[in-house]
Amino acid sequence: MPNVANCKKCGALFIQSSKRDICDKCFEQQNKMVSDINSFVEMYPKETISREEVLEKFNLPKAEFESLLAAGKFVRVAKKITIVCTKCGKVVPIANATNSLCNDCTRKLQNEI
Ligand SMILES: [Zn+2]
Ligand SMILES: [Zn+2]
User: What's the gap in Å between 76 CA and the centre of ligand 2?
Assistant: First the structure.
């Protein structure tokens, strides 16, 4: 029995053939956007680009960016996209950060627990 699910993105019904929670159409669009983002960042003339600039440019919600990042979609450009650590204010590449915290602060936070 195929599993029918609602697409998390557009709400359309689709047959869920894998763990994916979005429909084929949205998945394709997402793939295209991911490769657009990767090439945009790679071609970006400066050494780094802020995550906010990428989000703005592609009209992408932060939560979606984070889940794509967690899924390993931005490995190629993770050293070039930067965030400002919400704890210490340091600018770090997303490769060296978790969500909106730099690795130093993440480590400190873990030690505190
Ligand atoms: Zn969809
Ligand atoms: Zn920090």
Answer: 23
